[in-house]
Amino acid sequence: MQPDKKPRLDARASSADLGADGTLDPADWSVLRAQGHRMLDDMFDHLASLRAQPTWQPPPSDVRARFHAPLPLAPQSLDQVHDEFRRFILPYGSGNLHPGFMGWVQGGGTPVGMLADMLAAGLNANLGGRDHMPLVVEQQIGEWVRQIFDFPEDASGLFVTGTSMANLIAVLVARTAILGAGVRASGIGARGAGLRAYSSSAVHGCVAQAMDLAGFGSSSLRRIATDRSQRIDVEALRAAIAADRREGLEPFLVVGSAGTVDVGAIDDLQALAAMCREQGLWFHVDGAYGALAMLSSELAPRLAGLSEADSIGFDFHKWAQVPYDAGYILVRDGDRHRAAFAAPAAYLRRETRGLAGGSFWPCDYGPDLSRGFRALKTWFTLKAYGTEQLGAVMARNCALARYLEARINALPELELLAPAQLNIVCFRYRAESADEVNAEIVADLQESGIAAPSSTMIDGRFAIRAALFNHRTQQSDVDNMIDAVLRFGAERVGKHRLLAG
Ligand SMILES: *Cc1c(COP(=O)(O)O)cnc(C)c1O
């Protein structure tokens, strides 16, 4: 055949050394292999030199502008595409890898997790169901999770995107448990409209959203007052439940927090578990980041009562440092979990033998059918680091938070707004117009690249929030952050005085 008579598709694809014989594989694997090694080395270099880089830098407008490119009809060389990645994407992440990152509740990732995720992508496994080893790995994680939380053999577990999804699944399982499987066909109906759920006012916003998505409406979540440390006031909760019952409403669910997002408060889970048992309520715990503190012998006692929950939502991608995303929902009664999601479909027919066999079909336990192999990066992380070391990282973050708290207390310029209950400290620079000044300090810090704390409101006052989740963060990073707060604070106060004068 003449070269010019080749189909057009082949001619286009071959120009990028990828797409041999009409496939998407390379004609010459050795070229791709060398390129792949460069990409891997490049990423190792990035991780090894994090501290020399800014925590965060805003993507410049010319870099952003590049990402309005036309649809790439023709292939480009992989080398070129990777070069664009290196120049325009890699330097402008959100900073959560960096030891100076103290904003929000985010994990730092690990090189082991990165490598495992590459292997998972190579396998391209679909964990919706059927009979293959990746599903056995997800079940292995399920066994470990049951062991960590001391849950029974027949408890069920499922990887999900994150705790937002885990909390939604918990609400749906609790809904089906109280209203029966018929709710799935008929909706929540008149009885469902009278159901009420309870949490502290410090609970994460995704719990109200879960109530909304489950058809109850977000106002069906009663937000109960907290004590001074932002733990739910159990007596106020008891009173709210009694008041709702008197009104003819039907309490069905209590959501406890194991580590609130603002200050890291842990509700009295033992008291909540006892009350839910006594009142016949579903007890779910949002343990997004705090639940896995069970891995630390120092922190686990703080979570007493967690093992009595009916369900727990948590993230491997936060404090356990597994790369995004790796959320998890654990349900004590696996049958009830399944009853909320399993549905017959001819194309998902289960067989007793062959590839369509296998007893664990994750699509029976959540809304997703196609699912990636989140279990693999988690399996690698737990094995390669060991759970004791992962727990020790959490305890070290807490020790750093106590160190930060001590430094704040020792500096007359600074005021502690929320003490370190776990690994989050809220404070501010003392000043007139302190809300405005501290908002500017937070932005100054982030834009300086020195550190990236976030902010929140504590009792109506603007707070600088340092959330210590990164396993790379050292005492010197905390010191650098404090030094920068003092410097920017003095500058900002000077400017405000000038403006006022
Ligand atoms: C992060 C977080 C969530 C939400 O989890 P995602 O994994 O982001 O969906 C819920 N609750 C708490 C306490 C959190 O910290």
TrEMBL record:
What keywords does the record list, in alphabetical order?
Decarboxylase, Lyase, Pyridoxal phosphate
Q: Which residues carry this modification: N6-(pyridoxal phosphate)lysine?
A: 318
Q: Which cofactor does it need?
A: pyridoxal 5'-phosphate
Q: Give the molecular function GO annotations.
A: carboxy-lyase activity; pyridoxal phosphate binding
> Which PANTHER family does this one have?
GROUP II PYRIDOXAL-5-PHOSPHATE DECARBOXYLASE (PTHR11999), MIP05841P (PTHR11999:SF70)
- InterPro entries recorded: Aromatic_deC (IPR010977), PyrdxlP-dep_de-COase (IPR002129), PyrdxlP-dep_Trfase (IPR015424), PyrdxlP-dep_Trfase_major (IPR015421)
Keyword Lyase listed: yes
Q: Which family does it belong to?
A: Belongs to the group II decarboxylase family.
* Lineage top rank: taxon: Bacteria
Q: What's the protein called, per UniProt? A: Cytochrome d ubiquinol oxidase subunit I
Locate the compositionally biased regions of type Basic and acidic residues. 1-11
A UniProt-annotated Pfam family = Pyridoxal_deC
Tell me, which GO biological process terms does this entry list? Answer: amino acid metabolic process; carboxylic acid metabolic process
| Region annotation (Disordered) ranges | 1-20
**Gene3D superfamilies named in the record:** 3.90.1150.170, dopa decarboxylase, N-terminal domain, Type I PLP-dependent aspartate aminotransferase-like (Major domain)
Q: Does the keyword Translocase apply?
A: no
